[in-house]
Design goal:
The structure is a single chain. This protein is of the alpha/beta class and about 475 residues long. Helices cover about 40% and strands about 15% of the residues. It has 15 helices and 19 strands. Helix 5 packs across helix 12 and helix 6 runs parallel beside helix 12. The two termini are about 25 Å apart.
Length: about 475
């Protein structure tokens, strides 16, 4: 059991939970129960948490206690709530659920879906030849124990060379190989953030970063991104100066989920402001290779760092393949050694064979990344065209790179739309997953990582349910999987 959620806290998470107006509006208790199920399904409400008493929640939502009682009863019937007289009610999931590959709960009988919850591509064709070459290289490592806490030297040199080619001179001593970008973030947080420390993040931002911060019990403050323009320089710099956070986590290249690209002058000003207030910057460069339309990417944020305030993280998941769990940290050499010391208590080292595969892929990076950019541009344009044709009321800023669109919807229906889309074979990432306290219900992240035909089909299904949301009868709820 993870604790208790108060009535006002659950009310904030629920946000716009009421059933949409329509000729066949579902009862409020059903809408409330469905919203709680949605919170459980996308991870914003933990399992095993004690829900507020019926009277307390009714007061927080300003509804009748009868409505809450009926909603709790429905949640018990569907296996999402366990109650004991005199002790309270705790969240749970039905026994016919499993953890999906994305980390969220999904039904065991989950059929094939058009999955727009995961912003990642299938493996490139060069992966097989890279794996064969890696297997041929492996024997020279077999005489040793196989533990390389900072990574094998070939891969560290390859990553360092990539930074140098971007205009940031880097040595292998400044690189630590990790088991993916998320692992890199976790290690940096373990080293740099004490429990309860303050962290500034963008809003919206990567949901798994928020989960990592929650795991460190961080106090999170946010800088809101404009849907069309991205970072407001005065507001971002002002937030740093006023809150003086211990850390700031930023995604300057094709930000996840908005796709914005931070301009060079702001990068320089952010580093200067961070140094002035004693803030360390964690810069997530997961999408830096995926520019499109000839867009020139500004110099790395660490280029402007003179005081070891910037720690950069990146990995192979987005430009290459998520199944290859290889990431890295770029920092000062002393910081890398301290990270290695922290790592010993976590997982010792990354797999040698995977690292060798990464070495061969990076050797062919120019061709692989060029193909990825062409593929993503085609798929992005197909998704934009389908949205313009089927959902013209939605507003979308065209990204110049990355793998996601951030759509502003025609109403605060993101979570309801995601739940309904599951019924027609489309998995979505609702806006609130990318923020705090149930905000961002007017937004939806739409990755363009599936084939163009699948994206067009997915938009068609979404459009059909969007216009029929308020006329649906009692739904047979299916739980969406978590976002990656």
């Amino acid at each position: 059991m993870t604790g208790q959620v108060r009535g006002v806290q659950l009310a904030r998470l629920l946000g716009q939970w009421h059933a949409l107006p329509g000729r066949r509006r579902s009862p409020d208790y059903a809408a409330l129960a469905g919203s709680v199920r949605g919170l459980l399904a996308d991870g914003r409400l933990p399992l095993g948490v004690r829900l507020p008493a019926e009277r307390e929640l009714a007061e927080a939502l300003r509804i009748s206690r009868t409505t809450v009682t009926a909603a709790y009863r429905q949640l018990r019937e569907t296996g999402h709530l366990a109650s004991r007289r005199g002790a309270g009610s705790w969240t749970m999931l039905p026994g016919n659920h499993r953890v999906a590959s994305t980390g969220l709960w999904t039904p065991l009988d989950d059929r094939e879906m058009l999955d727009l919850g995961v912003a990642a591509l299938a493996a490139p064709p060069q992966l097989l030849s890279a794996a064969r070459a890696a297997a041929e290289d492996l024997p020279r490592y077999l005489s040793g124990a196989g533990y390389h806490p900072t990574g094998i030297i070939e891969l560290r040199e390859a990553v360092a060379d990539a930074y140098t080619a971007r205009g940031l001179p880097t040595s292998a001593d400044q690189i630590m190989v990790t088991s993916g970008t998320q692992h890199a973030l976790d290690l940096v947080l373990r080293l740099a953030l004490a429990p309860g420390g303050t962290v500034l993040v963008e809003s919206p931002t990567y949901p798994n970063a928020l989960a990592a911060l929650a795991g460190r019990r961080a106090r999170i403050t946010t800088h809101g991104l404009a849907a069309d323009a991205g970072w407001e320089p005065d507001l971002l710099l002002g937030s740093l100066r006023q809150t003086r956070p211990k850390l700031a986590y930023l995604i300057p290249e094709f930000q996840n989920p908005t796709g914005h690209l931070m301009p060079a002058p702001l990068r320089e000003h952010v580093v200067a402001a961070a140094h002035a207030v004693g803030t360390d910057l964690i810069i997530d460069e997961s999408f830096v290779d995926l520019s499109m339309d000839g867009t020139e990417v500004p110099p790395p944020v660490a280029t402007y760092d003179r005081h070891s305030r910037v720690v950069s993280i990146g990995g192979m998941s987005k430009p290459y393949w998520g199944g290859l769990r290889i990431g890295w940290v770029r920092a000062s050499a002393p910081q890398v050694q301290r990270l290695a010391a922290v790592r010993v208590g976590v997982d010792m080292a990354s797999p040698v064979l995977d690292q060798l595969v990464a070495v061969h892929l990076l050797a062919d990076a120019e061709a692989i990344v060029a193909d990825r950019r062409v593929q993503l541009a085609v798929q992005r344009d197909a998704l934009l065209g389908a949205l313009a044709h089927r959902l013209p009321e939605w507003r979308v800023t065209v990204p110049r790179g990355g793998v996601t669109l951030w759509a502003e919807l025609d109403g605060p229906v993101s979570s309801a739309l995601a739940r309904a889309a599951e019924e027609v074979g489309v998995r979505l990432a609702p806006g609130p997953r990318f923020g705090l306290d149930g905000t961002l219900e007017r937004f939806l992240r739409l990755p363009f990582t599936l084939p163009a035909a699948d994206l067009v089909e997915a938009v068609g299904r979404i459009a059909a349910i969007r216009y029929d949301l308020d006329r649906a009868g009692r739904q047979r709820w299916r739980e969406p999987a978590v976002i990656a």
